[in-house]
């Protein structure tokens, strides 16, 4: 049985952009047959939350002290390279 992974979606406020990316990633992964638990946070909260998640999707820079994998999610805002980012999220979920 595969454990359901947890993604931490991060933006500057933990409300607006991270919500949009969370919704887009959830829908895209659902189409790929994948599910996950989602959490959202602002960038300053990441060091205290990172231990409880499998990886992070961030639209803003986060602390360099975080050891979990970080996927840069700016492509969700620009649309450029979004498919590549979705492939990266899928690859992390399938590990």
TrEMBL record:
Q: Which domain of life is it from?
A: Bacteria
CDD domains, A to Z: PTS_IIB_galactitol
Any idea where the PTS EIIB type-2 domain is? 5-95
Report what the protein is called.
Answer: Phosphotransferase system, lactose/cellobiose-specific IIB subunit
Organism field = Verminephrobacter eiseniae (strain EF01-2)
Q: Which SUPFAM superfamilies match?
A: PTS system IIB component-like
* Alphabetized Pfam families for the sequence: PTS_IIB
One GO MF term attached to the UniProt entry: protein-N(PI)-phosphohistidine-sugar phosphotransferase activity
Keyword set, alphabetical order: Phosphotransferase system, Signal, Transferase
Q: Does the keyword Signal apply?
A: yes
**Signal peptide from the UniProt entry:** 1-20
Q: Which PROSITE patterns match?
A: PTS_EIIB_TYPE_2
GO BP of this protein: phosphoenolpyruvate-dependent sugar phosphotransferase system
